[in-house]
Amino acid sequence: MFDISFAELALVFIIALVVLGPERLPKAARSIGHWMGRARAAFNHLKNELDREVVNQEMQDMFRQKADSLRKEVEQMNRSLNENLLEQKQAEGSETAPPAAPAATLETQPEPEPGTTPAVTPGTNEPGDIGTTPAAETSRPPAANRAPEQDKA
Q: Mean per-residue pLDDT for 110-136?
């Protein structure tokens, strides 16, 4: 950076010795060394901060490029999948046209009139069904729900 030779440093030292004298020269040298050290530390800190910022900017640019390329790939895959689906649907539609299927309807039973017993449909597990639960199961709770002392009995 600066090209200062040994001869130039010796000349500066001799001039400082003559101007400041032997008593104040060591204190002045310490003070100059302290300030130069602080300036060097500030310069190094600034240099490191700029290097980190450059690396950070490079990383951000790299991430943006990767994100853009991934986004383009995803869009291309979506377009390709949509085209394939459309072609498949058109191929299925041209082979055989499916008949219009009626909508599935639930069979509902009419509400029983007050004072009458509802009709029992075998195989349903609705409350009030007769004969769907064995009597042995209703007298005891299932084994998973029983207390340990009930198992010993």
A: 56
